[in-house]
Amino acid sequence: MLSANTRSAARPGEALLNRAEPQQSVAIVDSLEVTFHRNRQRLPALRGVSLEVNAGEILGLVGESGSGKSVTGMALLGLLPRTAEVRGSAVVQGTDMVAATENARREARRQHLGAIFQDPMTSLDPTMTIGRQISEAATSKDAALELLRSVGVPDPERRLKAYPHQLSGGLRQRVMIAMAIASQPSLIIADEPTTALDVSVQAQILELLSELRTRLGTSMIFVTHDLAVAAQIADRIAVMYAGRIAEIGTAEQVFSEPRHPYSQGLLRSRVSLRTDRERPLATLSGEPPLLHDLPTGCPFAPRCEHALQACEEELPRLRPVAASTTKATSLTACIRAEELDQIDHEEAASWGPVATELAGYGNPRDLPLVMDNVHKSFTVEKRFRHRRTLKALRGVSLRLERGESVALVGESGSGKSTLLRVAVGLTHPDDGEVRIGEGEPPQIVFQDAGASMTPWLTIGTLLEERVSSASRADRRTFAEQALELVGLDVSIAKAKPRELSGGQRQRAAIARAIVKPPALLLCDEPTSALDVSLAANALNLIGSLRRRLGMSVLFVTHDLAAARLVGDRIAVMYLGRIVEIGPADEVISDPLHPYTKSLIASMPGAQRREAPTDGEVPSAIDVPAGCSFRARCNRAVSCCATDDPTLVAVSATQRSVACHNPVSS
Amino acid sequence: MVRFIAGRLASVIGVLLVLSFVMLLLQRYTPADPVRAKLGANANPELVAQERARLGYDDPLPLQYVRYVSDLASGDLQESLRTRRPVAEDIGDFLPATAELGAVALLFALFLGTILGIASSARSRGSGVLRVVLVAGSSVPVFLLVLLSLLLFYRQLGWLPATGRTGLRDAPDGPTRFLLIDSLIAGRPDAFFDAAHHLVLPSICLAIGPAVAIGRVLRGGILDTLELDYTRTARSLGMSERSVVLRHSLRNAIGPTLSIAGLQVGLMFAGIVVVESIVAWPGIGLYTVQSIPRLDFPAIAGVTLI
Amino acid sequence: GASASEDADAPVDQGSPDKILNVAFVGDMQVPDPDIFYEVEGNLVVTSAYEGLVRYVPDSAEIEPALAESWTVSDDGLTYTFALRPDVSFPSGATMDADTWITSFQRRIDVEGAPSYMLADVVETAAPDPLTFVVTLGSPVSAFLDYMAAPYGPKAVDPTVLESEDGGDLAQSYLASNSAGTGPYQISRFELGQGYELTANPTYWDGEPYFTAIDISIVPDVTTQRLMLENGELDMILHGLPVADVESFRSNPDFQVIQFPVLLKTAISANPNKGMFEDPAARAALQTVFDKAALTEQVYRDQASISTQIYPAGVLPAGLAADAPEVDSSALEALIAALPDGERTIDMAYSDDEGGTLPRLAEIVAAQLGELGAEVTVRPIPIAQVFDLVNDPLSGPDLLLWTFNPDAAEPDGWIRIFMNSEGPVNFLQCSVPEADALMDQGLAAVDEASIEQFYAEAGSAIVDSGCYVTIADLQDVVVARAGITGFVHQLPTPYTVRLKDLREE
Amino acid sequence: MSVTLQEAATELSATDSLRSFWSRLERIWAGARANVGTSVIVIFSIAALGAPLIAPHPPDAIVGEPFLTPLSSGALLGTDDVGRDMLTRILFGMQSSWLSALVVIASGVLVGGIIGLIAGAAGGLVDSVLMRITDTFLALPGPVLAIAVVAALGPSLRNTLVAVAVVWWPLYARVVRAQIRELAARPHVEAAQLAGASRLRILTHHLLPGAGPVAIVAATLDVSALILTLASLSFLGLGAPAPAPELGAMSARGLPYLLEFWWIPVLPSVAIFCLAVIANLAGDAIRDREAQR
Ligand SMILES: Nc1ncnc2c1ncn2[C@@H]1O[C@H](COP(=O)(O)OP(=O)(O)OP(=O)(O)O)[C@@H](O)[C@H]1O
Ligand SMILES: Nc1ncnc2c1ncn2[C@@H]1O[C@H](COP(=O)(O)OP(=O)(O)OP(=O)(O)O)[C@@H](O)[C@H]1O
Ligand SMILES: [Mg+2]
Ligand SMILES: [Mg+2]
Questions:
Q1: What is the structure's pLDDT at A357?
Q2: Is C250 exposed, middle or buried (0-12, 13-18, 19+ CB in 10 A)?
Q3: 3-class SS string, A113-150
Q4: Ligand 2 mean position to C310 CA, how many Å?
Q5: Contact A578, A401 (CB under 8 A)
Q6: Residues having CB within 6 Å of any atom of ligand 2
Q7: Mutating which of B2, B227, B228, B237 best tests the A interface, going by the most A Cβ atoms within 10 A?
Q8: Region of poorest pLDDT, from A251-260, C409-418, D29-38
């Protein structure tokens, strides 16, 4: 069992459970129902949600996409679109944000509420300076400066005059937070405030939020789809499913001993640094129900392995269920919550060996990919000033063995996608060499499967395009085979991308890549846009396909846990460089590069031995001389400032590292 | 910056070169005799031949072109066949009136369009009526619109003057040749109000079409931005819907709107020509209209190049 | 003030004795330089600012004294002696004398403007004494005195101004926006596109004009002009009002409609070089097709008279050079019926200058021909292209509908330019050698009777060619505010009344 | 026996294909109905084409006295200054105005679309050269060029349309290019490239269809602007010459009659008004529908 409670900040009362003392609560949501209408269909987004937020408490709201987390948040802010049909109440400090007049709600927002949203770039007006935007919340310039200082924005005077695009993602999110706390609100709605951020920045922001909570005593509803993140910051967690609360309890209890089969499934399909690499991930089968076509009974029943006849007949109510080990009581909406402990979970069979009959090879002795000292720069035009070069790749060398899977990790902007694009020839390197094995050219599975498919063409057309030289009938067979391989129904060939669910879309994208299996499959964060359960499915699918078809895989991700799971080896990138590469488990358990080490430390739910790294990835335009990580490194030595370390093999291991002062185990 | 300007300049010069060539071709292959039109029916053939030679109409085309372009380079647009004055000078005389009318019309268009855009995106009261009035107004041929407005506001109500830029004989003819500005410079409020009074009808008639286009783009832009995250941020800070629209949506929707407005300036010209000839506005449109039947090519070419 | 402007913003100085007459042009006039100006719109300005040696008696082809008190012509028709009026001076103070005329004639020749053709045969000018001006021609020109009386004829131009404003271009730039004549008015403001202002010449030899100033604005749209007239912003409209609008003013007691005969003729030319009317029989048949009376009534109501002569009415005595056939459309109908399919097309064009009536007339004519079985298409030709037709009649239309005016109230200026084989505006190139010879004889003739005789015969020869169907003689129609009187009009000056004679009750 | 079987089979397939034909028709109809804007335009185009069938007289025929007021017997909307039936001429005028607008817009969309597509897809030098050219044309004051062209070539509806078409396409080139650029930046183009699609196929299958909707929206919203521009040009004597029943020209030529015989200029303008409003509404409807997607 992981311990979620590793924060140094004390919780304001261990006794806080699912029910707060009435006088202490800052917000009470009661039987909230929200229905949208689209295309003459009713979409019940919330179906009777009740919860309370106590003073000074952080309530985590967890669930898959579409489960109603944001709608709950927006209802509390009183910002649901006018077209929404709302019943029930959402009272914040005495104002019912459902029924009150527009003016009253606005007043409540101004005085009692703050909000932080997912994407700090789009959440700030691009045409206004930070100063002007903050002044909409703060009373004076001094107050604005003070606010910026309190959220840890360095050099606030200068930042006041900056425009949002001139700030890094982390700083922008800090500005958002400053605006949210400007009025000293009693409740902050934070809707996935760290989802768009890199792990290290995410860790910093989480730190800041809990620090602010202790400092200001503000309550917070923290929306996230990552159970681990919620467990790390929240006091209590509510798990939502299809517009209802499936389970609500203390963070520790929900994270370590969930009672609802859905919470359990979520937890199990979550990839962590300890997940068993030898076998497929446990997954939740199926996908969340469509809102316009909800089952009458328990919405989770169709996906639930424990479902009974009764589950399908009646909506289960939230009821207290005691947890066996933590002795905590949670409210769970499952009629079989107590029995579930007794049921054993079958472990999946371990992966088979990688196929030896290698796919897509012209010459069986070819290596699928060899990159040697590849450089790639982009010129970015700065208006009215001289052009500047952005060094996206700064001398990358990488070899993939046949059938091997390498995971490429790194924070945003480190050059991962560029590396992939150079590898398949979509971009030409400025310098260095790229060699690809003969035969079927490599294919990429993109991050956003929807965007990678031409919206107005059918899946069938897109698949058949891969084999355009074949006869019509053959093309069809190829396409159908591919669909079967990824576990999709053949009828999907007639659908257009937007008619598919997210999971189906990602499968179709994978099917497109393997209509003719290439020797090398490149995956650019194929799971980062997917929900936990779908991501697990996709990881399993890629894992099994590459083994069955004998493909080599270069798997790009910013999630170390996924990297460890997929990659035989892990390569860590920083500012256009591979700074460390080695066998997956070794890199994770025994990182050599300080950057790798800090990445691991930043992982949510990690047992943190040291604080996450300060600062953010510097701009690839002005790469500092010497080691590019130097400024953030706590092991920097004098030669780091002048000598740029190169990737050197560590003797007697399969590992290489680019560091003057590597972490010694 | 220098590069940018140089590039723009190069493209403008390219445009002028191509355009002047096209103009010359048109002029050359027109089945018409502008010299005869200029000299009149009774002019004897020698005189016509002489005049043709003087104007260089008999020279080979490339030579004419080179001459035209070199004249152009020195700011010379040849002489109008009709007014017998240098076209550049004519344009200098006529352009300010048009520019003033166009500028005021554009301001009206922006103003009306902005109101329309904001009102119809915020669905505020009266926006429907405004929209119907403007869309209806913009769907009537502009010549009829002007005449009907004249019938109403000039003949029936007597509120607005019918023709010209000013009713004053001693209107200031100051440095900018924009009556509104000149009368302010000259400290003549009476002249200012008189000029404004004369501007109202033609400029509003001109503005309606562009206003609807602007309003439509602006509405789209505002509706788009209202869906955006930063307007949600503003609302979450307790801003009223109106200040959200005014402070955030409008700012961000205004960019594409202005570029539409820019395009409208080009489209407005046909309207300007029509309106000027109806309300006798002494501008470039009137000048053009008069040049057409006489095939005064230097004049038409000059206007086109401007 | 005479201006009844209701424009509240325009301060009308009630106390001053200014009497301002407001009129409008539909477009800018050409330059008001008397030696260049050669258009219809603008006659009002030039004939008010400048005067010639002689002028026409109102509504007549008779010539009466102007700056010359009297004149004599030598028997050989080569020498003209003008006795000048002694009391005439220019606004600059310079007096008008024979030297004035020598410089004025010379200037006209040197400027080489369109109207310089009138002096093409002058070989010598002389001033035996200050009040005697002698012109000697190389060969007799029977129309010469008419040239002197014509609106575009030579005018007295102030020699002192010509000298001080010479500017190397014979003062052309100066006279492009100023005047230097002896007329009752001077140009005091000339702004293209905006308007012109004439102010009374206080030293005018024939008494001060009643109106102290004439304000001419440029209002291209006649409907706008009409609104302005109704609102009192204009005192009169000199041309361009639709026929029906004139009729409605006629019944309005606040306004008056005055009509004058004028040398302005509407006719159809048939193209003898191509198409259906290459056949003389078809041309002859065409001449009898139209019921001119009905056409005139339909298009012009009573604002025109039926054309009965090939010349504009008033140039020759009635009955001469007659063009008044019996109406009979059967001949053309039969001819058309006999034509093979595909050759019954008629391409009819009209000169697109006047706007108002020609398109309508064209459409009616086209409809009538259509009823005879022809397939008629109608198109306008811009005026500049009409002038180009001469160069290539084969590309021209089968029928051309036009309205034009001669420069003077004499026959030669009409028949020679429009109908001579060499005529610069013989649009469809109809050549009648017999008529050419007759008009040459007419120009060279000296006595009144034989001149008339030659031109009458030339005209008849033209009529016989069948190339022309004259339709109507238009009238000048002036709509003015009731109360204005003293309308005086000369035959060859359309759209113009004598400003000096206007008064107000 | 076998013969009858075969017959049955053919019959079956015949009804089958009939059924599929019907279902296809139904689908087309449903699509058109959903697509209010497009269907209005289609209906109008059909009505315009059908003018000769609906109109009571030939367009140039003189049917009675000139200047008959509307609601006179024999001339529902009165007669014009020559005595032709106003109703007939307005119907024919709608035809010519509507079709003119469609022709100019179609040619504009075609030319602009191709140029925008090439520029947007090619990028780089080709793009900047093509866009310079486009901007050049865009910078031309359209009406003035029309004036110059028509002044040179003579007034005829065709010349006017040519002149207007010359300056009308750049807008679409811009719109299409912008859209193509946006699409080209989407991963789906690279995905298609990797999937082995040829350049041409990428152009025609993966880029072009995406630019269709914006071009169509722009085009429908332009119909009214175009009809009004043509009317303005007619006022300046640059439109269809005299007898041609073209709404703008009829209204402009009848303008001097405004005060005496109002219906001669006003009724054609009312028709223009209707066309413009319909085109506007259709454009708005299509745009809103596109926006909803
Ligand atoms: N304005 C709206 N109109 C129609 N449907 C809406 C609207 N807003 C939300 N929904 C629907 O309500 C459901 C719940 O949406 P919500 O945004 O709360 O999901 P979420 O849990 O926040 O998911 P995510 O993780 O994707 O943000 C979704 O199915 C969504 O499509
Ligand atoms: N076409 C381009 N033009 C200019 N800059 C580019 C281009 N493509 C990538 N870059 C820049 O190169 C750097 C590396 O980009 P890349 O997309 O490879 O990063 P990444 O590691 O994939 O990041 P992410 O996790 O955000 O996808 C970034 O700073 C990016 O802005
Ligand atoms: Mg959400
Ligand atoms: Mg990337």
A1: 66
A2: middle
A3: EEEECCCCCCCCCCCCCHHHHHHCCCCCHHHHHHHHHH
A4: 88
A5: no
A6: A 378, 380, 390, 392, 410, 412-418, 558, 620
A7: B237
A8: D29-38
